[in-house]
Amino acid sequence: MGSNSSNMNHIPDGQQLLQDTGFSAAQIIRLYERFEFLDKDNTGHLRPEDLETVPDLDMNPIGARIIGAFFPPGKETLDFGSFVRILAHFLPADSNRTRAGAQQEPANSTTGKLRFAFQLYDQDRDGKISRDELLQVLRSMLGLQVTEEQLQCIAERAIQEADADKDDAISFDEFRKSLEKVDIDHKMSIRFLR
Amino acid sequence: IGNMLKCYQSLMLIIPFEMADIFYFCRRGVESIVDDEVTKRFSAQELETWNLLTRSHYNFRHISLRLTVLWGLGVLIRYGILLPLRVTLAATGISLILVLTTLVGFLPSRELRFFLTEKVHVMCYRICVRSLTAMITYHNRENKPKNGGICVANHTTPIDVIILANDGCYSLIGQAHRGLLGMVQRAMVKSSPHIWFDRSEVKDRHLVAKRLSDHVADKTKQPILIFPEGTCINNTSVMMFKKGSFEIGCTVYPVAIKYDPLFGDAFWNSSKFGMVNYLLRMMSSWAIVCSVWYLPPMNREEGEDAVQFANRVKAAIAAQGGLVDLIWDGGLKRAKVKDAFKEEQQKLYSKVLVGEQEQGDNKSSEENPEEDKSYHGSANGQ
């Protein structure tokens, strides 16, 4: 199919997305097709219900949170540009070509990925993962398989390990520090097929 | 203090949870947003080479003048010559079915009725098949379904019925419709036994099962044709078979149908196209090419329940047709996943975190009876 960006004309913000994210033209086209497929009523926007039709996501213990990451509080619809920009977090870090005029740090850098994951925990966006928020995530991932006590113990241990300034919550820096040995790029990247 | 001790001990035993654990679920979730195994089965598959039909070209754009001219020529031929011919044939076929089956229904003698019904049906179906220009290859005809059994096949399109009925007489089973289709249904019933349900009866599974078993018990009746997937799938995979027809306990004759999408994709995407639209598209493609394999009959074995039997049949059909064997329910086209699946995921994850406790527990089982109970409780819970 070649890499001509001429057939991106019907994609909203196509050229802009090409510059801002690390996706190739072919990948953006592919994502647009997927976007159109998910957009069942052809409004040009996605709603949370559209994402919920994917069975794998519905089955995912933190599926609701992932959908929430696409729809920040107050936003009910998702246009294609935002869709792609969020997915850009999951590009492997090495696919970034140097772009003249790239303003900020690319979404798929380690920090970008960490920030995305941090937001999955930090639902009220106050910049800290409180004990409650941690418990909620654990409850989602474990359901009724463990007791309340076990849950508390696990959360206790996690906070003790990560919380450096002893304020009973995990800030973004503490989060990052506790994960410095983890290969973030590997764990938080997916292969986008042409 | 007892509580603190317990907590400390369990901390020692539990594999520590890591903040990074969420990455796994996160990645899986986003991967499924980008592409997933299930929803793509509900839309037509992509072709490797273009067959001059705009509808099967994913990224239609201008490549060269020559190609566009060829395509234009193709449109002329398809819509100018092929389509009218086919529509005429189809109209002839349908009216013949209506007229002839009604006529045969008036005959008094039962044997004569059976004899003529077969001839009439086969003739009309052949006409319909020609009207779609379906090139069908039947394999292993010695395994053709016999009376008193159930014929089970994978479902891609309503045309499956015509394709199979072209080669033999089947009793159909389905909802009673109104309008033209309803007329055809009522006409068919006059000369041979089909099972048409009212909408209200469909909900009553026992009623359905009873009518099915009554039919198969009568050895003079033709085999019933059933599509256990319940909905049209795009012919790259076989989805979960509903166990209803496998509970009856008669011989099952599996049939695998595989379409070659090169000359025309037969998949009916019911959320995108209505029936008439679909038929028009079928008749304006080049041709419908398919292969039908009759598989050796299967019976339910000792100690096998209906679900296992259904899966065994499904695997055989998938293997023969070169289709992917999926456990997912075709009903996911319209409905959402049941909570049981989410619980499975949670169970697996909790086993990773808490499961190791089992080995260490032998020593400390007196101190931690509650943890023991909760783990075993959850394992037996489902």
UniProtKB/TrEMBL annotation, chain A:
Q: Name one GO molecular function term.
A: calcium ion binding
Q: Main localization of the protein?
A: membrane
Q: Does the keyword Protein transport apply?
A: yes
Q: Name one GO biological process term.
A: protein transport
- Is Repeat included in the keywords of this UniProt record? yes
Q: Which CDD domains match?
A: EFh
Alphabetized SMART domains for the sequence: EFh
Sequence ranges assigned to domain EF-hand in this UniProt record? 109-144, 155-185
Q: What InterPro entries does UniProt report for this protein, alphabetically?
A: Calcineurin_B_homologous, EF-hand-dom_pair, EF_Hand_1_Ca_BS, EF_hand_dom
Alphabetic keyword roster:
Calcium, Cell membrane, Cytoplasm, Lipoprotein, Membrane, Metal-binding, Myristate, Nucleus, Phosphoprotein, Protein transport, Repeat, Transport
Q: Which GO terms describe its cellular component?
A: cytoplasm; nucleus; plasma membrane
Offer one Pfam family short name for this entry.
Answer: EF-hand_7
Q: Which family does it belong to?
A: Belongs to the calcineurin regulatory subunit family. CHP subfamily.
Protein name per its UniProtKB record: Calcineurin-like EF-hand protein 2
Q: What is the lineage of its organism?
A: Eukaryota, Metazoa, Chordata, Craniata, Vertebrata
Automatic annotation (TrEMBL), chain B:
Q: What would be one Pfam family of this protein?
A: Acyltransferase
Q: Which GO terms describe its biological process?
A: phospholipid biosynthetic process; triglyceride biosynthetic process
Q: What is its main location?
A: membrane
> Transmembrane region positions?
63-81, 87-107
Which pathway does it take part in?
Lipid metabolism; Phospholipid metabolism
Q: Where in the cell is it found?
A: Membrane
Question: Which region ranges are annotated with the description Disordered?
Answer: 352-382
Descriptive protein name: Glycerol-3-phosphate acyltransferase 4
The source organism is Sparus aurata
Which gene holds the coding sequence for this protein? GPAT4
